């Protein structure tokens, strides 16, 4: 078999390389938009979504799962993704190199309508991140710091499970901003996300304590 390609094969190879390059140049939000556009009505499982994103970083997975939590008045999808978010954040705490998800969680599906809402909402509410994020304060995004960041994100994800109106939006933003900063090695963005989430959780705890004191007299 010849080791040289015919002109037709060369053209085919070049075309394939251009397609691969084009795919790699897409941002995470652009990839999600394309996925939503071609999704079947029943949508994709979380495992299928991650496979299509071809991302193994914790930051990418958490950002994707946090998107529906950021969208006000979007119900159903945040409840699907909240526990997988906690699972990924906890794996950061224990120092896992690669994300892993139990089969039961990975099999959870987001339908086409949900994916479309995620992509549109992500572009509307978080599209600005792509324009300002850049590598800075990179020591904050290192492996040692990742464990501490994961602990904070675990708490933020847990607060999404609180059964009160709008409780998913602010912590969703916090997780999305911090995880995107983690993915892009932007320590300043990570700090911003952690501050937002900490302020939210502190306010939530304060409100619960005040309510308990009021009830108890």
Short synopsis of the structure:
This protein is mainly alpha-helical. It contains 10 helices and 2 strands.
Low-pLDDT ranges: 1-24
Query: What shape does the CA trace take?
Result: globular
- Run of helices and strands: HHEHHHHEHHHH
Could you tell me how far the N terminus lies from the C terminus, measured between alpha carbons in angstroms?
87 Å
Strand order of the largest sheet: 1-2
Largest sheet data: 2 strands, antiparallel
Please indicate the percent range of residues in DSSP E strands (runs of 2 or more): under 5%
Percent helix among the residues? over 70%
**Total count of helical runs of at least 4 residues:** 10
Gyration radius over CA: 20 Å
**Overall SS class:** mainly alpha
Mean pLDDT across every amino acid position: 80
How many distinct beta strands? 2
Please outline the helices and strands.
Layout (H helix, E strand, L loop, with lengths): L6 H19 L2 H11 L5 E2 H8 L4 H13 L6 H17 L9 H4 L2 E2 L1 H21 L10 H18 L8 H15 L3 H30 L1
Helix pairs in contact: 2-7, 4-5, 4-9, 5-8, 8-9, 8-10, 9-10
């Amino acid at each position: 078999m010849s080791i040289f390609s015919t002109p037709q094969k060369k053209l085919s190879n070049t075309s394939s390389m251009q397609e691969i390059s084009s795919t790699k140049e897409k941002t995470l939000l652009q990839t999600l938009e394309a996925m939503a556009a071609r999704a079947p009505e029943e949508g994709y499982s979380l495992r299928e979504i991650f496979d299509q994103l071809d991302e193994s970083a914790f930051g990418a997975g958490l950002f994707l799962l946090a998107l529906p939590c950021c969208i006000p008045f979007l119900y159903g999808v945040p409840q699907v993704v909240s526990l997988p978010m906690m699972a990924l954040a906890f794996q950061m705490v224990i120092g896992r190199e690669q994300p892993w998800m139990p089969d039961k969680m990975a099999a959870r599906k987001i339908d086409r309508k949900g994916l479309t809402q995620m992509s549109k909402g992500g572009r509307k509410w978080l599209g600005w991140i792509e324009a300002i994020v850049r590598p800075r304060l990179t020591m904050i995004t290192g492996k040692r710091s990742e464990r501490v960041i994961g602990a904070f994100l675990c708490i933020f994800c847990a607060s999404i499970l609180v059964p009160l109106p709008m409780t998913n939006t602010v912590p969703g933003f916090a997780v999305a901003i911090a995880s995107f900063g983690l993915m892009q090695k932007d320590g300043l963005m990570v700090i911003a996300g952690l501050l937002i989430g900490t302020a939210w959780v502190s306010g939530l705890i304060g409100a619960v304590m005040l309510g308990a004191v009021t009830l108890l007299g």
